[in-house]
Amino acid sequence: MRGLIQRVQFANVKVDGETVGEIGEGLLLFLGVEKDDDQAKADKLLEKVLKYRVFSDEQGKMNLGLKDTGGGLLVVSQFTLVADTRKGLRPGFSSGASPEHGEAMYDYFVQRAKALHDDVATGQFAADMKISLLNDGPVTFNLDV
After folding, report:
1. Pairing of strands 120-122, 72-77
2. Predicted TM-score of the model (pTM)
3. 91: cis peptide before it, omega within 30°?
4. How many folded domains does the chain comprise?
5. N or C of the chain: less Cβ packing under 10 Å?
6. Cα 144 vs. chain centroid, distance in angstroms?
7. CATH label of the domain that carries residue 40
């Protein structure tokens, strides 16, 4: 399971021109699911996302996580994150989860996120989504578990 987090001042997701998910300050998480991913990996990644220290403390150092700040979490499925880009000029997706498994893992991740954090919004699995955001920093980290 792979996650790409961006610290944002705001972010939203639109499907067919309609906003389906939106947050203010917080983290935008692009979530990629691989074939062998399971609930344990989802739990581990979620814990990392919620506690990863990317927000500034009183001294201006990145010492606070999303759980400390209470900011929003916008979770967007991103199949292309699991692409193999090591060879050639075309990405390979052989390690990616099937659509059924990917959606089940995405749904599980979102369910657990909502149980553990107050401000969680989502995109729409397998939809053509338009993402708007204002990256704060910019601060972007690739998280693998």
Report:
1. parallel
2. 0.96
3. no
4. 1
5. C
6. 11
7. 3.50.80.10
Cα–Cα distances (Å) from 38 to 90, 91, 106, in that order, read 27, 24, 10
List the chain pLDDT tens, one digit each, 145 residues: 999 999 999 999 999 999 999 999 999 999 999 999 999 999 999 999 999 999 999 999 999 999 999 999 999 999 999 999 999 999 999 999 999 999 999 999 999 999 999 999 999 999 999 999 999 999 999 998 9
Secondary structure class of 45 (helix, strand, coil): helix
Does some domain include residue 143? no
Look at residue 126 and tell me if it is in a domain: yes
Tell whether 53 is covered by a domain: yes
Residue 142 lies in a domain: no
Helix, strand, or coil (residue 89): coil
Which residues carry out catalysis? 78-80
103 to 48, 84, 123: CA distances (angstroms): 21, 20, 12
DSSP conformational letter for 79: G
